[in-house]
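Bug #77: duplicate submission created two jobs. Keeping one. Sequence:
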Amino acid sequence: MFTRIVDCTVKPEKKEEYTQRITNEVMPILQKQPGFVDCITLTSDTDPERVVAISFWNTKNDAERYHRENYSRIMSILEPALQNEPRVHTYNVEQSTAHKIAAGKAA
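Kept job's structure:
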């Protein structure tokens, strides 16, 4: 399994708009992507404008295909609510109780 972590800052006055766009526009797109498993969105308890989204993919190739084919579309949906360009990091998932993955069995 593979994950993409997207870290961004939302404009304070656009927080509700951002949440609505994620729910109504972004999640339906993600759910239709080949290899998409799950997405978790987190907000900071000390900096309410900071948002981290963690998406899980069956394979690195699935995540890379999504990035090539749909990431710019997602960013165009969210851009009006963002303060800056999101930072994207990728990782192999080594362990997850939620996804029943043990170290050495990922991917």
